[in-house]
């Protein structure tokens, strides 16, 4: 994993990540989710490019989590989901991971 400052353009996207995880668990491919993302506006965005940007960010994060964790992620309380989402972000962003590791 290389350093990237791309995280600065992405948000925490908790609810969006949970939606993406639920579609992954349903067995949908990224292409299928992409189609749904714009047609049904599942991410509540105004522009098509933004829907795909949210999908790409959330898909990359949650697909790094094991299936068992994804199942917990979509059904757990909000506080637990925030922690699992943070773990997914840390798994996806080396720069953020090393920043937090440095703080501890």
Count of β-strands: 0
In DSSP terms (H or I, runs of 4 or more residues), the helix count works out at: 6
Order of helices and strands: HHHHHH
| Termini gap | 21 Å
Unreliable stretches, pLDDT < 50, 5 or more residues? none
Q: Hey, roughly how much beta strand do the residues contain?
A: under 5%
Largest sheet: none
Output the keywords:
globular; 104 residues
Give a quick rundown of the structure.
The chain is mainly α and 104 residues long.
Furnish the topology, listing elements before pairings.
Layout: H1 14-25, H2 30-39, H3 48-62, H4 67-75, H5 78-92, H6 94-103
Helix pairs in contact: 1-3, 1-4, 2-3, 4-5
Structure description:
The protein is mainly alpha-helical and 104 residues long. The chain contains 6 helices and no strands. It has helices at residues 14-25, 30-39, 48-62, 67-75, 78-92, 94-103. The radius of gyration is 14 Å and the shape is globular. The model has no long low-confidence stretch (mean pLDDT 91).
């Amino acid at each position: 994993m290389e350093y990237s400052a791309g995280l600065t353009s992405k948000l925490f996207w908790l609810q969006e990540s949970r939606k993406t995880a639920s579609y992954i668990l349903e067995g949908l491919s990224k292409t299928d989710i992409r189609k749904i993302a714009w047609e049904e506006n599942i991410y509540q965005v105004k522009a098509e490019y933004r829907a795909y940007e949210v999908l790409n960010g959330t898909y990359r994060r949650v697909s790094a989590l094991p299936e068992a964790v994804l199942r917990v992620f979509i059904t757990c309380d909000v506080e637990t989901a925030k922690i699992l989402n943070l773990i997914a972000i840390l798994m996806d962003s080396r720069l953020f991971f090393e920043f937090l590791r440095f703080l501890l």
